Amino acid sequence: MANILIVEDEPGIASFVSKGLRAAGHQPTAVGTGREAINHALTDGYDLVILDIGLPDIDGFEVLERMRGSGSKTPVIILTARASVDDTVAGLEGGADDYMPKPFRFEELLARIRLRLRSETGGGDLGVLSVGDLSLDLRARTVTVGGEVIELAAREFELLEAFMRHPDQVLSREQLLSRVWGYDFDPDSNVVDVYVGYLRKKVGAGRIVTVWRVGYRLTTRG
Ligand code: CA
C-alpha cells in the first residue's frame, strides 16, 4: 500500500484514478489545484505524486519545480494531453520520473506506478501473479499456462491481469472496461466480450466463467 497524491482538476479523471488506486490497495488523496498540490506534496509523506500539467492556477511544471526546489524526492508521474508530449519531455528534465499521455488506461498507469514504487524501495516485489497453473509476470510481461509460455496481445495481457488480481471474483463488464480500456471508452461496447473470447482460446475456455447478466469470473477450480 502506498500513499499517493493525485493532482488533477478534472473531477471525472480524479475519481477514476482514485477508485482504481483504492481497488489496487493504495491510499489516494486528490487535489485540484497547483497550490494545494505543493502544500500537500511538501508537508505530507506521499510515496508518489500523479501530476496533471493543466491546472487552474499554476501549472504542473511549476508544482514540480517547487517540489524539487524544496528538496522533495518523491517520484512524480505527469499526466499530459497527447498533443503536449513534447513539452512534457522537457518537463521530465525538470525532475519528473515518468509521464502518461491522456487518455490513458488505468492498468497502464498502475504499471508505471508499480515500477516507480519498486525502484524507490529497491526491488522487493518481483510482480508475478499466480492462479492455479496460470502465471503472469508483470515485469517481463509473459504468461505461462502449465509451464508453457503463451503469446498474448497487450489488451489480452491486461485483461488476464485484471482477472488474476481477483480470482474467483465476478468482475462486471464495466469494471473490466474501465480497468483495461480506460475511462473514456464507450460503455456500450462489446469489446470486453470479444477479448474474453480471445483469452479463452489461449488460456482454456473453462477458466473464465460467464456470470449471466453480471460479467465474468476467473475460476481457480477445474
Ligand atoms: Ca487539467
List the topology elements.
Blueprint: E1 3-7, H1 11-23, E2 27-31, H2 34-43, E3 48-52, H3 60-69, E4 76-81, H4 85-93, E5 98-102, H5 106-121, E6 128-131, E7 134-137, E8 142-145, E9 148-150, H6 154-165, E10 170-172, H7 173-181, H8 191-203, E11 208-211, E12 215-218
Parallel strand pairs: 1-2, 1-3, 3-4, 4-5
Antiparallel strand pairs: 6-7, 7-8, 8-9, 10-12, 11-12
Helix pairs in contact: 2-3, 6-7, 6-8
Calcium ion binds at residues 9-10, 52, 54-55.
Provide a short characterization of the protein structure.
The protein has 222 residues and is of the alpha/beta class. Helix content is 41%, strand content 23%.
What does this structure look like?
The chain is α/β, with parallel strands linked by helices and 222 residues long. The chain is built from eight helices and twelve strands. A five-stranded parallel sheet has the order 2-1-3-4-5, sandwiched between helices. A four-stranded antiparallel sheet has the order 6-7-8-9, with helices on one face. A three-stranded antiparallel sheet has the order 10-12-11. Strand 1 (3-7), helix 1 and strand 2 form a beta-alpha-beta unit. It is elongated, with a radius of gyration of 19 Å. Residues 9-10, 52, 54-55 line the site of calcium ion.
